[in-house]
Design goal:
Elements lengths: L26 E7 L11 E2 L5 E4 L2 E4 L12 E4 L12 E10 L2 E5 L9 E4 L3 E3 L5 H6 L25 E7 L11 E3 L10 E4 L24 E4 L1 E5 L4 E4 L2 E6 L3 E7 L8 E4 L2 E6 L4 E7 L5 E5 L2 E3 L10 E5 L5 E5 L2 E3 L3 E5 L5 E3 L2 E3 L3 E5 L4 E3 L2 E2 L16 E3 L4 E4 L50 E7 L8 E2 L8 E4 L2 E4 L12 E4 L9 E8 L4 E5 L9 E4 L3 E3 L5 H6 L31 E7 L11 E3 L10 E4 L24 E3 L6 E3 L4 E4 L2 E6 L5 E7 L3 E4 L2 E6 L4 E7 L5 E5 L2 E13 L3 E5 L2 E11 L5 E4 L2 E3 L3 E5 L12 E2 L20 E3 L4 E4 L45 E4 L8 E3 L10 E5 L6 E2 L2 E2 L10 E4 L2 E4 L4 E6 L4 E5 L2 E13 L5 E5 L5 E4 L5 E4 L5 E4 L2 E2 ...
Parallel strand pairs: 1-10, 10-12, 11-14, 12-15, 13-16, 14-17, 15-18, 16-19, 17-20, 18-21, 19-22, 20-23, 21-24, 22-25, 23-26, 24-27, 25-28, 26-29, 27-30, 28-31, 34-43, 43-45, 44-47, 45-48, 46-49, 47-50, 48-51, 49-52, 50-53, 51-54, 52-55, 53-55, 54-56, 55-57, 56-58, 57-59, 57-60, 59-61
Antiparallel strand pairs: 2-9, 3-4, 3-8, 4-7, 5-6, 5-9, 6-7, 32-33, 35-42, 36-37, 36-41, 37-40, 38-39, 38-42, 39-40, 62-63, 64-65, 64-84, 66-83, 67-68, 68-69, 69-72, 70-71, 71-83, 72-80, 73-79, 73-83, 74-75, 74-80, 75-76, 77-78, 77-79, 81-82
């Protein structure tokens, strides 16, 4: 071609030989970087006792190299066999990895190297000690001086037909603290520079890249005020961590400037953090060039905020006509999230939340599916949304599997003309309808894990429910909704498997799994891999089963095959007892729901091993409890219940042995019994990151074994334990750890010789725990507990780490019935009740509920131990006075998005706290005063000026309920939903739900609208849902409520008649805590 290109328009080299034919091969060059302050980073390994042979382009080592060795690393070797390294010898660079003993290597210029056999004089180095040195060609000074001047910087990649790959490696926790400007290189569309962290096994044995969350042990560019500047035209920056620190002037994480109009800069999969102070102004990414052509995707940016500085932004474009493609990024906690001056920008699938201003768009941009937490998104339907992340308090902005705003709400960009997106910041594939998955992609940098559900019940192999021909038992599946003509039993729930006849030929050919329950006739279902199941209409050949008959079988993939049809019963073929399953690679999160089978116990111990997991790709083993999971709870109520799921294990095996990490055990009953000599035995033990909560563990040793109810064996890893009740006979340790890090909050250990034990110092953090009845409640080496340990009680003096409460005092806690192993706090207790520290927002382990699922206060005091005492006094006519504890089924928190009880602990000054699980919509009280309510305290409204304003509580409200007692049961306003939708009483004394699309009105639990001046419980349901953008209690426009209002609740789902009845029944008890 006249322009010197091949048929792909790849640039032909100048001044050297061309390839023959239409194609010009681009030579890939690899160099490695690891940070070192003085520029001399010693060899990672040498040839002593490890002979290396190079034949063709393959280097073979006699013994395995370390897993952190990979592409770009330099190997100097004795090519002439004279026993030393000098100018006559060679240096090569790794360009690929087969395994830990076989690597592809190339010369400086990317050609095949000089062969050598069984050399032991070789040494292996990182090629450079900073990214800036790699850009200028300043090699690692530890490489032999005769060989290290291999690069000079500012290379003409186009003329040399090269494409450079600069692989960035961690060096412990040392950061790369040298600013870099990428300038002076001659690049072209296929002759670009890629700066990245290697993560594939074909590149390196252990990933050098973050996994979507800042990781101090991965490569990071840290503490630099002017961090990374791009001034060459064709640059790719991928998978870095950049922390921009500045206290004055203006700086950036990445800036793109002075590039040509033909440029193609790509910035993806990075985490960019701002640390700004004093007068500093900073930008996460700054596009400061009118000619720039920049593509940005899968980046997470946060922290670019500085009080008083209004020009700070996560991402900003300066010029009005730069072509910037901004797809699937997440920006949080900045002054401005996206500040876009360019009218040529395109924005799709981005999240900007919890910024002062989420989107500041000077020009109209092409956009779709961009979420904001305020009203600034360019896409109306995506404004004022709340996004749930895994742990925003600790800067983990992976999407929570429970999120309802960003998950499955994005545009399919897999075939986008400008920038096709097929993976997320973790490297997980994004689903795409074009590829046949039939599910939507997520918005933001992360593609959340797909929740997978499986059920188990001990020895339960027969069907739970079934269809019968011509009997009115039709089953229909459309999309992800399964509808039954007749109600399923209440014990049918999440994880249960449905086999059915999808093609109408009277034989079973399809299978689906329940992932949620709306009612006894309506369920959400998924295919075995979480995708949409095969559709069917009016099938009567269906049956519902438990997926597995033991927890051990679920771990090993041994399905319930006794009665499930042979054509569909091998649904977990990818799970192997020996090999587990790689749920990180498949981006799944497994939920194994454990159900009771009468009083039958699960007697099989389980070892969870060979599963590849991650914090977002974890295994949860739990008992379903909520009505969105099952019709009747499968969980104990804080005291052992033989009618709920239980494990009863004898022999030498732990009930649960979690060898694989990222396992969560929630709400089980575990009894471990021994009558023979086994040495040391455990109830639960782990080797990896572990979460254990809401369990009852009873260990009974009738021999002389060493016994540990919980054994934390995760060396130097964090594990978390809360709301557990542990007791036993001849129990040596309630909880035991050695070199692990354990966070233990609100547990109760009874009758253990050692309640909480750590053989290392400063590694066990204990808060709000009870130890009673043993010989030593709390022990840590040198008496050094983890920082912040406090508010623990023991019945021994000088035992519990508790500098703020009962310091060094013996403390006897009163339980409901210790003889019969009911370790709920007694209402007469004076030491644990209201004596703990509030852990609602604890940075390591925020807690919201107790072992029963009862709420713990967001603002008030907490009880110490697993139980939060909540007692009520009955005032039902004819029943006299009695106290009771609110049961799990009564708490009714599923889908609860707003709750204002107006009780004493729930009001402070002019604030009425939102006590829903999420909280966040506290009401502002104007004038209304406390009064005796239907249940505890209420608020009295004067009819002229009093109201409570809870602000914007979001969209999709399907149920509103409240108690009311009005002084005038005609023509009175009650609630304002958004200025249009409102609840009022008309002139005839009937409740109206004005402007609701399809409301059903209940009064005192029944379909009715009539009220009078007595107390009434009002509920409005509407499956269409309304948007509560302005939620006011006691006022609608200029009209005000005259009377008393109590217990206001809003839900994002339609409550069943039974649930409305249960809420009504709660009005017959008075809170007297």
């Amino acid at each position: 071609m006249a322009n010197g290109g091949d048929e792909n328009c790849y640039t032909r080299p100048r001044g050297t030989s061309w390839d023959i034919g239409a194609d010009e091969l681009i030579t890939k060059i690899y160099r490695s970087v690891a940070p070192d302050a003085d520029g001399t980073l010693e060899a990672l390994t040498t040839g002593a006792s490890n002979a290396m042979t190079i034949a063709s382009s393959t280097a073979t080592f006699a013994t395995a190299l370390a897993d952190n060795i990979g592409v770009g690393d330099a190997i100097q070797y004795d090519a002439d066999g004279d026993g030393d390294i000098d100018a006559s010898d060679s240096i090569v660079f790794i360009s690929g990895r087969t395994d830990s003993t076989h690597f592809t290597v190339k010369t400086v210029s990317g050609t095949a190297p000089t062969a050598v056999s069984a050399d032991t004089d070789w040494s292996l180095f990182r090629a450079y000690t900073s990214l800036a040195n790699a850009e200028t060609g300043t090699e690692n000074l530890a490489i032999d001086a005769d060989l290290r001047n291999f690069d000079a910087g500012n290379r003409d990649l186009a003329s040399n037909s090269e494409q450079w790959n600069i692989a960035c490696y961690a060096n412990g926790t040392t950061g790369d603290s040298t600013a870099v400007t990428l300038d002076g290189w001659t690049t072209a569309p296929q002759n670009y520079i890629k700066i990245y962290t290697p993560y594939l096994t074909t590149e390196v044995g252990t990933s050098q890249r973050h996994q979507g969350k800042w990781d101090e042990n991965k490569y990071k560019r840290d503490g630099i005020s002017m961090n990374t500047a791009v001034q060459d035209d064709f640059i790719r920056i991928e998978g870095l961590q950049i922390r921009h620190t500045r206290n004055s002037g203006t700086g950036y994480g990445i800036i793109v400037q002075t590039v040509a109009s033909v440029s193609d800069v790509k910035i993806s999969d990075n985490i960019i953090v701002g640390v700004l102070s004093d007068t500093a102004v900073g930008y996460g990414i700054w596009i400061n060039d009118s000619d720039a052509r920049v593509k940005l995707w899968n980046n997470i940016i946060y922290g670019f905020i500085n009080p008083g500085q209004t020009s700070v932004a996560g991402l900003t474009t300066t010029a009005a006509n730069s072509y910037v493609y901004v797809y699937n990024n997440t920006i949080r906690n900045c002054y401005r999230g996206f500040h876009m001056n360019s009218s040529a920008a395109k924005m799709k699938n981005n999240i900007a939340v919890n910024n002062t201003v989420d989107y500041y768009l000077v020009a109209n941009v092409v956009s779709s599916n961009n979420i904001s937490s305020d009203a600034t998104s360019p896409n109306t339907a995506y404004r004022n949304l709340s996004v749930s992340f895994v742990n925003s308090a600790n800067d983990d902005f992976h999407l929570s599997p429970s999120d309802t705003s960003a998950r499955n709400s994005g545009a399919d960009l897999s075939q986008d003309y400008w920038l096709p997106i097929t993976s997320d910041i973790d490297g997980h594939a994004r689903p795409a309808s074009a590829r046949g998955y039939g599910v939507a992609t997520d918005i933001g940098a992360d593609e959340s894990a797909t929740p997978i559900y499986r059920s188990i019940a001990p020895s339960m192999s027969t069907y739970l429910d079934r269809g019968v021909d011509e009997s009115g038992t039709d089953l229909t599946i459309s999309g992800t909704t399964m509808t039954l003509e007749n109600a399923a039993p209440d014990n049918v729930g999440v994880g249960d498997v449905i086999q059915y006849d999808s093609d109408g030929n009277s034989s079973i050919d399809a299978i689906a799994f329940i992932s949620a329950r709306a009612s006894s006739t309506s369920f959400t279902v998924q295919a075995r891999d979480g995708a949409n199941p095969v559709a069917v209409t009016n099938d009567q050949d269906w049956q519902i089963f438990r997926a597995y008959t033991t927890l051990d079988n679920a771990e090993g993939g041994a399905e319930n095959t006794a009665n499930i049809d042979d054509d569909v019963d091998d649904f977990d073929i990818s799970v192997s007892r020996n090999d587990g399953k790689d749920i990180y690679a498949s981006n799944e999160q497994w939920n194994i729901a454990a159900y009771a089978n009468g009083t039958t116990a699960d007697t099989n111990a389980v070892t969870i091993d060979s599963w590849t997991t991650y914090p977002t790709n974890y295994i949860k083993i739990y008992t379903p409890v909520s009505s969105s999971e099952v019709g009747t709870s499968q969980r104990h109520n804080g005291v052992w219940d033989d009618g709920k799921y239980k494990m009863e294990i004898t022999g030498n095996s732990s009930a649960i042995n979690a060898v694989s990490g990222n396992v969560w055990v929630d709400g089980l009953q575990i009894k471990r019994m021994t009558s023979s000599s086994f040495g040391t035995i455990y109830g639960i033990t782990n080797s990896g990151v572990f979460k254990v909560n809401n369990n009852i563990i009873n260990l009974i040793d009738n021999y002389t074994n060493t016994t540990r109810a919980i054994n934390n064996g995760a060396s130097n890893l964090n594990s978390y334990y809360w709301n557990n009740i542990i007791y036993g006979t001849n129990l040596d340790y309630g909880y035991y750890q050695a070199s692990a890090y354990g966070y233990l909050y609100n547990n109760s250990v009874i009758d253990a010789n050692n309640g909480y034990y750590s053989s290392f110092s400063n590694k066990m953090t204990v808060k709000n725990n009870i130890a009673q009845g043993g010989a030593d409640g709390f022990f840590a080496s040198s008496s050094l507990f983890g920082a912040g340990s406090d508010y623990n009680v023991s019945d021994f003096a000088n035992d519990a780490p508790s500098p703020s409460y009962r310091t060094n005092l013996a403390t006897d806690v009163s339980f409901v019935d210790e003889t019969n192993e009911d370790f709920h706090l007694s209402s007469s207790d004076t030491f644990a009740c209201d004596a703990g520290v509030n852990l609602w927002d604890d940075s390591a382990l925020p807690i919201r509920e107790d072992i029963d699922g009862d709420p713990r206060s967001e603002q008030g005091g907490w009880d110490i131990g697993a139980d939060e005492l909540i007692t009520y006094q009955s005032n039902v006519s004819g029943l006299g006075t009695a106290t009771m504890q609110m049961s799990l089924t009564e708490k009714m928190t599923d889908g609860l998005v707003g709750m204002w009880s107006f009780d004493g602990p729930d009001i402070s000054g002019t604030t009425a706290y939102d006590r829903s699980p999420a909280g966040g919509n506290d009401g502002t009280i104007t004038g209304a005063t406390p009064a005796i309510g239907k249940r505890g305290q209420a608020l009295s409204f004067n009819g002229t000026t009093d109201f409570v304003d809870a602000g914007d509580v979001g969209a999709g409200i399907q149920t509103i309920s409240f108690w009311m007692k009005t002084d005038d049961a005609t023509d009175i306003k009650i609630l304002n939903i958004d200025g249009t939708d409102q609840i009022e009483i008309d002139g005839t004394g009937n409740i109206l739900a004005t402007s609701f699309p399809s409301a059903t009105i209940y009064v005192d639990g029944s379909v009715s609208a009539a009220v009078d001046t007595s107390w009434h419980f009002v509920t409005i349901t509407d499956s269409t849902g309304v948007s509560a953008s302005t939620f006011q209690i006691g006022q609608v426009a200029s009209s005000f409520f005259d009377g008393i209002i109590d217990e206001v609740r809003i839900y994002n789902r339609v409550l069943s008649v039974d649930e409305i009845g249960r809420l009504y029944d709660l009005g017959n008890v008075e809170y007297v805590r």
